[in-house]
């Protein structure tokens, strides 16, 4: 069976969930080989969890420089491996880094690129969700080794046993005149809440929340349900909540089991990031707010009375 | 400091977007077309740099004839000149071929120190064209920047992604892409709009920049859309007015759906 290369997304010696989703998708096309690019000593800590999701091989590409340059080390390692093992495909997470790595790799290989697939079948046909879920499309690659980025959270990870046989590969030396040097990192503070794109419940606040202080109302409801907190662009632009939590066209795309919108009007650009959520609840003072058009359950009312009451109800049920 | 800004004309996100025809290509005629908002911010960043350090801003755009409107908007903000790659054979060009073509066009502009692009277009959302342009040019990429600083020989940027903030640094020439949080773009003044009408826009064909017809368009695409359809609209939900029991009602709905 042909190998399928999967670029491992990892942070602080842990494999990110999206990697398991990619390994699951890779098994439909062939035998998954996980590719770890990082500082010396990285891969050893990851093999156990990679084995649990069916990685037959783990290519460890480790060097001090691997973490010191932006995306080029990963592109160099993957293109080298494509040359030596002729995989059936290369799967990369559709994160910011992943999309750039995949794009450069496709270009270097002269291959086609499928961007942000939400599903992948055994023939390599990828499903896309376009314009914020308003459109579905299917596409396939017609040239070269397929390079495919997969949207985090779209494919359910299924455990499977893999040998995870480790094999070291070289990280080509980086040329500082052609690549950007990383001089500092400030990782997002994880906190206690689940990650926005991984959460099964998201509670978001909009301009209607009115201030940074009052976002506490949104956070309290989220915490009562073990949810992630999101925000509209108007809320972010007004300084109520940090940018990394923006949901929408130019923010995150989320597709949780439940999305609760508090004081959000439901502009088309906001809907683009959340309308594929399984269930949508909206609270808005304005009965004409467009968010009600896509809400499964809408409350016309003041979020400052409805949300705390809901928090209390949920706390009661859980208690 | 000579800067090229990559701008794209996209269907207005406020209008309905769809795919059409046997090729399932974006129906660019059915929607209003605008200069992508993030590209206004890319122009703004370039203007701020050249206003402080001197130099020229050249707008580069690949797109159909009517993309002229987007180019004029960028010129009316204050960019000096533009190069427009426009050719009937370009329809349906995929991301890798777009990056190769843009790199060729950038090659026609003299002494470029910096290329500034948007981080991600609102139509395709590939989010990788700037990185791919850097790959073709063999220049460093400093992408998804929420802050950019340059002294004329090197460039520093704060990259903001899901993973947090990463500081990156490289020598020039380099490719930068900016996020929507980098600045507030200026409105074109009346004077700017009038001046833009006289600024040079050179329209190039594929032959002018040495690209074969088979390298671009649907013929040159390395991927193929095999099916597309609009998602069926959702059935309307329940709407209640809060009379003191709104939160309880939501809790009841969630319990019924086994969501709490
Ligand atoms: C290119 C582009 C990209 C964009 N990308 C995004 C994006 O990624 N994400 C995004 O969200 N937007 C995006 N936008 C902006 C979008 O068009 C809207 O401006 C934005 O979503 C509005 O946010 P909002 O609903 O919080 O604010 P508003 O539209 O001002 O709505 C606030 C709502 O709160 C309600 N309200 C006020 N007080 C209360 C109260 N006490 N209780 C209950 N309800 C109350 C009001 O009735 C109103 O409906 C983009 C726009 C453009 C042009
Ligand atoms: N056809 C094009 N013409 C000019 N610039 C483009 C074009 N396509 C993409 N770009 C640039 O690349 C950025 C990111 O686009 P994308 O990678 O397609 O999401 C855009 O904001 C533009 O700056």
From TrEMBL, chain A:
Keywords: Electron transport, FAD, Flavoprotein, Transport. PROSITE patterns: ETF_ALPHA (PS00696). It holds the Pfam family ETF. FAD binds at residues 207, 232-233, 246-250, 263-270, 284. The keyword Zinc does not apply. One of its GO terms (molecular function) is electron transfer activity. Residues 4-186 form the Electron transfer flavoprotein alpha/beta-subunit N-terminal domain. The keyword Cytoplasm does not apply. InterPro entries: DHS-like_NAD/FAD-binding_dom, ETF_a/b_N, ETF_a/FixB, ETF_asu_C, ETF_asu_C_CS, Rossmann-like_a/b/a_fold. Binds 1 FAD per dimer. Its cofactor is FAD. SMART domains: ETF. GO terms for biological process: fatty acid beta-oxidation using acyl-CoA dehydrogenase. Belongs to the ETF alpha-subunit/FixB family. Heterodimer of an alpha and a beta subunit. The electron transfer flavoprotein serves as a specific electron acceptor for other dehydrogenases. It transfers the electrons to the main respiratory chain via ETF-ubiquinone oxidoreductase (ETF dehydrogenase). This is Electron transfer flavoprotein alpha subunit apoprotein. It comes from Saccharopolyspora spinosa.
Automatic annotation (TrEMBL), chain B:
Its cofactor is FAD. GO terms for molecular function: electron transfer activity. It comes from the Bacteria. Keywords: Electron transport, Transport. One of its GO terms (cellular component) is cytosol. The keyword Electron transport applies. Coiled coil: none annotated. SMART domains: ETF. The keyword Metal-binding does not apply. CDD domains: ETF_beta. Belongs to the ETF beta-subunit/FixA family. The electron transfer flavoprotein serves as a specific electron acceptor for other dehydrogenases. It transfers the electrons to the main respiratory chain via ETF-ubiquinone oxidoreductase (ETF dehydrogenase). This is Electron transfer flavoprotein subunit beta. It comes from Saccharopolyspora spinosa. The lineage of its organism: Bacteria, Bacillati, Actinomycetota, Actinomycetes, Pseudonocardiales.
